[in-house]
Amino acid sequence: MATFHRAEELKRALGALPQVASVDEIKVENDIIKHVTLEAESIGKVTVHQLDVNDAAGLFDFYSHGLSEKPRRQFAPYPLFHTPPVSADELACRIADWKRENDWTAVNLVKDRRIIGFGLLKRFKSEQVTSAIVIRDEFLKKGLGYLLQNIIIEQARLLNLKMFHVKVVSDNLASVRLHEKCGFRQTKVLPSAIYEEIFKYLSDCDRMDGGEAVERQLIEMAIELGSTTEMDKSFSIDDSAGATDSKMMKKNSRGKHGSIKNRT
Ligand SMILES: CC(C)(COP(=O)(O)OP(=O)(O)OC[C@H]1O[C@@H](n2cnc3c(N)ncnc32)[C@H](O)[C@@H]1OP(=O)(O)O)[C@@H](O)C(=O)NCCC(=O)NCCS
């Protein structure tokens, strides 16, 4: 499908999210989301843009100062954040090295030039496509995790993926619930060897909080992306009326948690 139509489709899908008041600019290149500007109902204008080596300092600040220790530990995707980078320069090298590969995409969510969220979709040319997201502490619970994860889902649709998954620690309720709300379901319990250090940290936290160490597991949650849904079909009937239609659909299609039916 032509890039223009893909961008228009993406614009309508994002515009239909309950958290989004309007989508103002969008740029898609080779099926990769490069840039989106939108008005989030909770915090106003935000941009989403493709990660660049020049973002290393801002991303390192986001990671080391914008996140407290627990979310930092919970968000550990290789190769950028596992093991934790110790400087912006190290992060810049990791981004530059990763840029040589062509099976991933990562976006910054930016408000007033500050990174407030980060999400990625990696190994999308393999069977093991994985996503991960994180939101800056002071912007939690404003619907931004849901927004960012939906952007990743739309990115996966642009790439014609049928399915992808996320790895979550079982008692990370915020992440489990968020992914359920987006249409993910638990599919596996995974060997936790690569998360051993994280599990040890979380058990230490339990004890420091005065309790017993919680028994936790590393779980995989997956989302299946259907082909053309009823909603997609109605989007393509009349392009010129897209913006109005998508707002009407948003009103009519909120599920139990305000999510959009038929898109997962
Ligand atoms: C998981 C995370 C991304 C959620 O971000 P957020 O912006 O606060 O989430 P949202 O405000 O969009 O919430 C969306 C849904 O998630 C769930 N949720 C979010 N925070 C929650 C919490 N503290 N407890 C239970 N459910 C929660 C709810 O179902 C919520 O929907 P609702 O508002 O209709 O109840 C954020 O907590 C985070 O960055 N955590 C650390 C990193 C991490 O664990 N990443 C995921 C691993 S890949």
What does this structure look like?
- The protein has 264 residues and is α+β, with helices and mostly antiparallel strands.
- It has two domains: 1-160, Aminopeptidase; 163-224, no CATH class.
- 38% of the residues lie in helices and 26% in strands.
- It has nine helices and nine strands.
- It has helices at 3-15, 56-66, 69-74, 88-98, 144-158, 173-182, 196-208, 230-237, 242-253, and strands spanning 20-29, 32-40, 44-50, 104-111, 114-122, 130-135, 163-169, 185-190, 218-224.
- The strands form two sheets. It has a six-stranded antiparallel β-sheet with strand order 1-2-3-4-5-6, sandwiched between helices. Strands 7-9-8 form a three-stranded antiparallel β-sheet, covered by helices on one side.
- The model is unreliable at 228-249 and 251-264 (pLDDT under 50).
- The structure holds coenzyme A (COA).
- Residues 71, 74-75, 132-135, 140-146, 166, 168, 172-175, 177-178, 181, 257-258 line the site of coenzyme A.
- Coenzyme A is lined by residues 71, 74-75, 132-135, 140-146, 166, 168, 172-175, 177-178, 181, 257-258.
